Protein 1
Amino acid sequence: MCGIIGYVGDGHDTADVLLDGLSGLEYRGYDSAGIALANATLDVFKREGEVSALESALEGADVHGGAVGIGHTRWSTHGPPSDANAHPHTDERNRVAVVHNGIIENYQEIRDELTAAGVTFVSETDTEVVPHLIGQALDAGYDPEEAFRRAVDRIEGSYAIAAVFVGSETIYAARESSPLVLGVGDEGHYLASDVPAFVEYTDRVIYLDDGEFARIEEGGIVVTDREGLVVETSIETIEWDPEETGKSGYDHYMQKEIYEQPTSLRQCLRGRVDELEGEIVLEELADLAVEGPVQFVACGTSYHAALYGSALLQERGIPAQAFLASEYASERVPVGEDHLVVGVTQSGETADTMRALREASAAGAETLAVTNVVASSAARECDHALYIRAGPEIGVAATKTFASQQVALTALACVIGGGDSREVVRGLRSVPDKVQTVLDESTAREVAAEYVDADAYFFIGRHYQYPVALEGALKMKEITYKHAEGFAAGELKHGPLALVTERTPVFALVTGDGEIARKTIGNVKEVEARGAPVVAVTDGQSDVEQYADHVLRVPTSTPVAAATVANVQLQLVAYWVANMLGRSIDKPRNLAKSVTVE
Ligand code: F6R
């Protein structure tokens, strides 16, 4: 996820509009930022770091004046944060500057082709192919608009792209599966990934659709389709509180991040599923050879994802185990050169996980970071890195990153485990849509209202749903400050059943209609018989509803995918209970987003 902004007009200072806009978009990425101003010359300024680093770099520079410009704040996917990888990117002759949000799936093929034609690349990004393609088309005699369209036609994947040309006062833009909104002002026009970027200047907007192009000039905006035919657009007036910048209209970042999951999951899968073969392709792990057991090390929510990952590998006959990173010590755990040790860490900076990875590496193991942050410590220090591509997560409680960890670990298990992955691939591909269905139809708010005063909350599940039970309880504890506990459903009768009363709702994860569902229903009956309210999270395939006081319905999925889909209901219940209790949802007491002490 990155943020883009553009402005054309002479009512405001272009550089100021771009920098203000980038600050409003920093929630979408903040590892580097840049702007391009098109005058008689094309001037590009970019810096690694937050927008403030770019602002400091521009102090005293001659950037003011000029009627058109674009800007970008980056969350790395291809190439680590650096000045060179920051956007905008230009062609070799500095005639065009481009900003992009999304992933270009066929960039390697295009890059190879351009390199063979003599083009020199200066960054490791997928985006840089675009200005070079445009440059080639300009060389071939096409005008800027046609050159832009031809370049966009060549790329596959997701994009919101904007380009400015030397000596021109027009912004060209295109959209496919990445957000892009145009702002219609009295003193100029705007484009951005999201409304907060320009809401202080105008509240009139045009939402671009997939496959549409825009030509934005001071005199007006023209939107066209792929064939170049003009599309009729409607201008909407939005209500927006500038204070809400970054939350896109949601009350909390956590809520927004829960609702972003269909998008972040699609981003995680993009370019990694071979639809024809029914296979997973993880190009970044092409030289990963797993010869022995696999150990996972992780903390908190990431540990729950690690438990899920180890279950996936065990199912494929690979000896795998998940360790709490703080409990992992190479002198106690047998680890050697034939081991792969996987650090699952959203931030890539958690001290406990880093220590465990370093110990494993010192013992000769191969190491792999499964992380959200490109060039984080884990990504840099491990032998391999697999990015979950969830985009920045601002809420302290992990939500969308857990879902993306689950999906990335499923992909990893297919690659390491080999064999026929068709069913898993099918399940994975449908996860974003099924999560969307849950978000659209969930009755979690009513369930939360029913049990907001409960003494404690219990969560039970088996197999792939066991880590989800643990995660459901962790979310509830973190943001409601109330007691919650997750159990393997079969363990309940070995002690925890003593805690169960009519004031302790039990959330039971029951998906499918097989042996696992049947046994969990047995455990549901045990709590029901003791008077505890039961909330079944179910796809309706079994008869668990008969024993439940409330049902949180999820669409039917494959067993692997069901764990990701069902978890969303628990995120929503925790969110609404915390909301009703008036808790500090995005910054719960005593907690920090990244824990860099052991
Ligand atoms: C819970 C949560 C924490 C983190 C844990 C590990 O919502 O966010 O439990 O999962 O601190 O953090 P990472 O994944 O950054 O290593």
Protein 2
Amino acid sequence: MAPTASGDGARRRPITAPAIRARMVRDGGDPLVMVTAYDAPGARMVADGGADLILVGDSLAMVVLGYDDTLQVTVDDMAHHTAAVARGLASWTPAAEGARKPLIVGDLPWLSYHLGPEDAVRNAAALIRAGAQSVKLEGGAKRVPVIEAIVDAEIPVMGHLGLTPQSMHAMGGFKVQGKETEAALALVQDAKRLEAAGCFALVLEGVPEQVASLVTEAVSIPTIGIGAGAGCDGQVLVFHDLLGLEDRMAPKFVRRYASLRADGVAAIAAYADDVRTGAFPSAAETYHLSDDVAEELRLYG
Ligand code: KIV
């Protein structure tokens, strides 16, 4: 029987890394949509929203675990949350006609691929065993040996260039990259090297739009931008930013599509009020004994 557009069919036809690589965005195909997620309900929301890719990003450190930067998360942390996302999608049944299960990209954290190819392959494998179907790592040409080793182990790799948060100390902070001619051309060269090393896609973060367009034109794999303008083949946003789960100052590239923090705080305040005034729980929200048992118990009262 041919797979249907929903239910089992969508589960049997998940989006794959080769399909992302082959997506003909520049020939009129739809731009790629990637959103981060870190747990099972978040993954199902992102899938129901129709994203092509779910990134279990090391932004986990900042938006979920309360750290000031991404350098604090470990492979174990990333595997724990990747497994939650994978479990969330394992039983996911798409609500929308034609929806397909998104590709899970597990983010390799800082120091998980800096100590040599063997270590990097072992850590990439930990994310695959946790349920990812691909991994992402940050950096340019100097990452080529590590990317080749991971690809050689049959694991699809997504590159990440530009403002790479794991390099925040080396870069002197979270700063837009590629603003001068030489730096912009170096990014183009890095992108070509990453494509040649076997990356199936590239994240471009925090670069001027002209530089992102230059990089996109220089490679045949898709580019997915965040703070990189509209010239990329797709876009990625962090779950908490997109949904307004935080009300802290956001970078200028963030667009909030909901105000879940404000809605959540209002809901919790309403609940607190109902508890304090006795309006919650109501009779309808309460379990009751049968009249007979209630009567018998009254004799003991
Ligand atoms: O960790 C993350 O969320 C990311 C995206 C910002 C691309 O790397």
